[in-house]
Specification:
Number of helices: 11
GO molecular function, one term: magnesium ion binding
Protein name: Dipeptide epimerase
Number of strands: 15
Enzyme class: isomerase
Structural class: alpha/beta
Pfam families: MR_MLE_C, MR_MLE_N
Family: Belongs to the mandelate racemase/muconate lactonizing enzyme family.
Order of helices and strands: EEEHHHHEHEHEHEHEEHHEHEEEEE
Shape: globular
CATH superfamily of the largest domain: Enolase-like C-terminal domain
CATH architecture of the largest domain: Alpha-Beta Barrel
Largest sheet: 8 strands, parallel
Distance between the termini: 28 Å
Strand content: 15-25%
Strand order of the largest sheet: 4-5-6-7-8-9-10-11
CATH topology of the largest domain: TIM Barrel
Radius of gyration: 19 Å
Helix content: 25-40%
């Protein structure tokens, strides 16, 4: 494996609109783009770094400087390679995901197969993806909703603030599409949360993501037991090892490559979820089509998808998975299905 070469570079994603959730707002997202070169093939990877993850471009690059894949005689032994990467340092999940994605892309290209093909997942079974509407003024919320309403079958709405009902009412003035809600831990009182959940059910909402604090599993379990809508974990579930801990507290889980260290662990989480009674959402950060296409390879195996991250930016430097009438469309390219542009 002495011919394997790892390279990386920082890149900043420019958002079409300010992205506002219950705790902060941003107009850019820093990422680190990764390449693995071997035997004429290039595997592409990405670490997306929204501020709440606690990683930066510098921390990712410092982590990647410690990665030495030349020690492996067989890169296709993915578990061994990624176990080594995982144990370089604690945390750094997005940095680890960038290696995981690039490795999967490289191996798929060597095998000349896409990963949904390697995993025997039917590309016809991809779900519709949500499109995210962040917290904003009435005029901007209406504008953003009107721009996308004809292209999607379901929208995702960021809540968790003092004007939650206003946000829903403004969107309902534009469309009657089904809605998924992400409260980003913004609700504190379980009784008020249940009251809001019942109201949202009447407004055509189909699920609620992480309404309570990630550490307050008792309130999440109580709300899940009483709610007329499924309650999904996001911040409460990061990795495979978290899943047993939250059993019974949620109806489903949101799996994100940047939280769980990449495609390999995400696949294991998807495989485990049914035995724990969880439905599965596949989510994302603001990302290029590189990381989105990597996650999309798993999408035929999940119930819900929120893979709109590349649609929220103006400077995507890859092309890959596309969205048609809201549905995720996988291509037949090998690996994760991307080309650099």
């Amino acid at each position: 494996m002495s011919r394997i070469q790892l390279s990386y570079s920082p890149y900043n994603l420019m958002l079409k609109y300010p992205f506002t959730i219950s705790t902060y707002s941003r107009t850019t997202t820093p990422v680190v783009l990764v390449e693995l070169h071997y035997d004429g093939c290039i595997g592409y990877g990405e670490a997306s770094l929204p501020q709440y993850l606690g990683e930066t471009q510098d921390s990712v690059i410092n982590f990647l400087k410690q990665v030495d894949l030349t020690q492996f005689a067989d890169l296709t032994d993915i578990d061994s390679v990624l176990d080594y990467v995982d144990h370089i340092a604690v945390g750094n999940t997005a940095a680890k995901a960038s290696i995981d994605i690039a490795l999967h892309d490289l191996i798929g290209k060597i095998k000349n197969k896409s990963w949904h093909e390697i995993w025997n997942l039917n590309p016809e079974n991809t779900p519709n993806t949500t499109y995210t509407i962040g917290i904003d003024t009435d005029d901007i919320v209406k504008k953003k909703t009107a721009e996308v309403v004809s292209d999607f079958k379901i929208l995702k709405v960021k809540l968790g603030g003092k004007d939650d009902k206003r946000m829903i009412e403004v969107i309902r003035s534009v469309t009657s599409l089904p809605l998924a809600i992400d409260a980003n831990q913004g609700w504190k009182d379980r009784s008020e949360a249940l009251e809001m959940t019942c109201w949202l059910k009447e407004q055509g909402v189909v699920l609620i993501e992480q309404p309570m604090l990630k550490t307050d599993l008792d309130s999440s379990a109580w709300l899940t037991a009483h709610s007329p809508l499924p309650i999904f974990a996001d911040e409460s579930v990061q990795r495979l090892s978290d899943m047993e801990k939250i059993k019974g507290a949620f109806s489903g889980i949101n799996i994100k490559l940047m939280k769980c260290t990449g495609m390999n662990e995400a696949y294991k989480m998807i495989s485990l979820a049914p035995s724990l009674g969880f439905d599965i959402m596949l989510g994302c950060m603001t990302e290029t089509s590189c990381a989105i296409s990597a996650a999309a390879q798993l999408s035929p195996a999940v119930n819900f998808a929120d893979l709109d991250g590349a649609l929220l930016i103006t400077n995507d430097c890859f092309k890959g998975t596309t969205i048609k009438n809201g549905k995720i469309i996988l291509n037949n390219l090998p690996g994760i299905g991307v080309e650099k542009v």
